[in-house]
Every structure is written in structure tokens, then in C-alpha cells.
Amino acid sequence: MAVSRFMEWNGNHSSVTRFVLRGLSDEKELQLILFPIFLGIYLVTLLWNLGLILLIRMDSHLHTPMYLFLSFLSFIDICYSSSISPRMLSDFLKDEKAISFIACATQYFVAAWMGLAECCLLAAMALDRYVAIGSPLQYSAIMAPGLCGKMVAGAYVIGFLSSLSQTVSCFNLYYCGPNIIQHFFCDLPQIIPLSCSNPFISQIILLLAAIFIVFGSLLVILLSYGFIAAAILKISSGKGSAKAFNTCASHLASVTLFFGTVLSVYMHSSSSHSMKQNKVLSVFYVVLIPMLNPLIYSLRNKEIKEALKRVIKRATY
Fold this sequence. Notes:
Blueprint: H1 2-5, E1 7-10, E2 13-16, E3 18-21, H2 28-58, H3 65-92, E4 98-100, H4 101-134, H5 139-142, H6 145-171, E5 180-181, H7 188-191, H8 200-234, H9 238-266, H10 272-299, H11 302-316
Parallel strand pairs: 3-5
Antiparallel strand pairs: 1-2, 3-4
Helix pairs in contact: 2-3, 2-10, 3-4, 3-10, 4-6, 4-8, 4-9, 6-8, 8-9, 9-10
């Protein structure tokens, strides 16, 4: 039904012009319940991340490498969530969740760009924490604004080039048969199997991105924390050790949530049970983590709380 309606004849063959997203659930009643919940989460994500970016920009005490990285992480989270959430919200109110070929490619390109950039940025933040704890006296000299800017630009460029190569290779494949994506957003592992042409190059590009960017970033983070642990053990006072670890706690929580859910989704068997499980896990890294990140970094952070008090005081008086 949906397959035949979104096909066009091209000589002796028919090609897919649209995909159909299965969404989170087929139950209409559940979709109407989920709509206000996910709308609330998306609005909170926008407000918290924009608020954190503005606070970092407005308070000069927060013009340090750690908060520079944090403001760019918030920007990534806004873009990442916005590439998927609005479409998902509109689909909750539709009977037929159709998405055009171009819109699907655009959604994947932006989501993959931001997701891969976040991997690289979390690795850069781990290096920043290692320098802060391992070489506190040389920290300002090592983590100069120029280097921080290059690290942020590098994260965006790597994410952009990788996402572009994945999107171009996947959406240049020929699609002539089933057009139903078993997900609530356009995701390559669910789209590539629908192709009628040989997907070998697309699969190789996807695998290389996973190895070099995702696992590469994770390796940098693990090595950085290995050196951080060694540096903390050298600190003689218990209070100093606790303070040093406290500066890493938020980043460590963010890394565990992000990489934990991403790896659990993409390293799985393709059974129908695991597909339902993956949809639920995908909600965590697509919808919930962008909302939780600013909260994780702000909740126990005295500098952010003090900066907020200063901004409120200036606004009041």
C-alpha cells in the first residue's frame, strides 16, 4: 500500500521517492500520550542548552577552555535534537509517517554530523581535563584559545566530512523495493538493507566512521582517564584528590550515558525484539541526553551557580 504509492516508474524499473517511518509505536492512543511528553522534553532541551550558552557568553569568569567546549557541546545538542525531534513530534499526529527521499537524507546528514562531532568534542574535553589535572601550572599555556578553537573546528570538520561521505554513498544507492524504515528517524543501518544495489561501499564507509571516529574518540577518552587516575593517585591530600575527581565527574557521566547507549544500539543482533529495544535506547541518546547534558554539567558546578547569581544580580540592579 505505502510501498506502491511512493514509487515512480523509471524505464522498466520503479524507484522509491519516499520512505515510511514506523515510529516509536503503532498504537494511536500511545502516540497521543507521548506527544506532550516529548514536546516538553524538546522545549526543555532548547531552553537549558540555550540558557547555558548565553550564561557562558555573558559571564567573563566562564571564559575558560572547559566552558568553551561546554558551550559548543550545548550547540551540538540543540542541532542534534532539532534534526530529529520536530519530525518525530509531527509524526505522532499523523496516520502515515512518510518522509521524502531528500528530507530523509538531510535528517541523517545533520544527525550524523552532530553525533560524530559530539564524539570528537567529548574526546577533546577529556584531553582538557587531563591537562588541567596532570599539568595545572602549564594549563593556561597548553590550552591556549588558539588550540581550543582548532580542537572545536576539528570536531565539526571531522563530523561534517564523515557524515557527508556516509550520506552521499547511502542515498546514491538504488531503492526499488520496500520503503519502510523500522525506526522513528532516518538511520543508515535501517536504510541500507532496503537498497536494491550493492551496498558494500556504504557499509565500508559506515564501518570506517565507527572505527576511527566513535571508537577512536572512546580510546582517547579512556587513555585520558587512565592518565587522570594516575595523576590523582599522586596527589597526597584526600581533599585535593576529591576536588580533582569532582572536575571530571560531570564529563564522565556524560561520556558514559552517550557512548553507553550508542554502542548498545549499534552493536546488536537484528531481531524484532532487539529492534524494539533499540528504539527505546535510541530515545536516550537522541532525545534525553541532549536535555540531560546541561543539567549534568550545572547541577554540582559551583562556578556555573555563581555565574548565574551574578547575571541575575546584574539584571536586577
